[in-house]
C-alpha cells in the first residue's frame, strides 16, 4: 500500500513537472512572439509606441466599453497625467482622440479612430506572422511524437 502511494506521488510530481515545463514553453513562445512583433513594429515605417502608449491603445481598442482618462488610469494602475501623456501621443498619431463628455463636462472620453483600427489590424497581422513559425514547429514536433 505504501509503495502504491509512493508511486502515485511520483506520478503526480512527474505530471506537475511536465505541466510546469509546458507552461514555461508556452510562456517562452509568447515572449518570443511579443519580441518579434515589437521588433517588426520598430523596423517598419510608422509610429513607435512606448509600452504605456501601447497598453492604453490596446485597452481602448480591445475592450468594448467607453473609456475615460480616469477609467484608464484606474484600470492600468497609473496616474491620470501618465494617461494624458500617452493620449497626447496617440492623438498626434491619430490613433485615438479625446472628447469632453457632453453629459459630464468634467469627464474626458477616449474615442477610437479609423487610423487606430488600421493600426490594430497591422499589429494583429504582424503577430500572426510572428506566431506562424512557432505553430508550424509545434505541429511538426507533435507529428513526430505521434509517428
Automatic annotation (TrEMBL):
<dbReference type="Pfam" id="PF12802">
    <property type="entry name" value="MarR_2"/>
</dbReference>
<dbReference type="InterPro" id="IPR000835">
    <property type="entry name" value="HTH_MarR-typ"/>
</dbReference>
<dbReference type="InterPro" id="IPR039422">
    <property type="entry name" value="MarR/SlyA-like"/>
</dbReference>
<dbReference type="InterPro" id="IPR036390">
    <property type="entry name" value="WH_DNA-bd_sf"/>
</dbReference>
<dbReference type="InterPro" id="IPR036388">
    <property type="entry name" value="WH-like_DNA-bd_sf"/>
</dbReference>
<protein>
    <submittedName>
        <fullName>MarR family transcriptional regulator</fullName>
    </submittedName>
</protein>
<feature type="domain" description="HTH marR-type">
    <location>
        <begin position="27"/>
        <end position="147"/>
    </location>
</feature>
Amino acid at each position: 500500500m505504501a509503495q502504491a502511494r509512493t508511486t502515485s506521488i511520483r506520478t503526480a510530481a512527474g505530471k506537475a513537472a511536465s505541466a510546469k515545463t509546458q507552461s514555461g514553453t508556452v510562456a517562452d513562445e509568447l515572449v518570443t512572439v511579443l519580441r518579434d512583433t515589437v521588433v517588426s513594429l520598430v523596423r517598419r515605417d510608422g509610429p513607435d509606441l512606448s509600452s504605456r502608449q501601447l497598453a492604453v491603445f490596446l485597452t481602448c481598442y480591445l475592450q468594448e466599453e467607453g473609456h475615460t482618462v480616469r477609467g484608464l488610469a484606474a484600470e492600468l494602475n497609473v496616474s491620470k497625467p501618465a494617461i494624458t501623456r500617452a493620449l497626447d501621443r496617440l492623438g498626434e498619431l491619430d490613433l485615438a482622440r479625446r472628447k469632453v463628455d457632453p453629459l459630464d463636462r468634467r469627464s474626458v472620453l477616449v474615442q477610437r479612430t479609423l487610423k487606430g483600427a488600421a493600426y490594430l489590424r497591422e499589429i494583429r497581422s504582424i503577430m500572426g506572422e510572428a506566431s506562424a513559425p512557432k505553430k508550424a514547429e509545434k505541429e511538426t514536433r507533435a507529428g513526430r511524437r505521434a509517428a
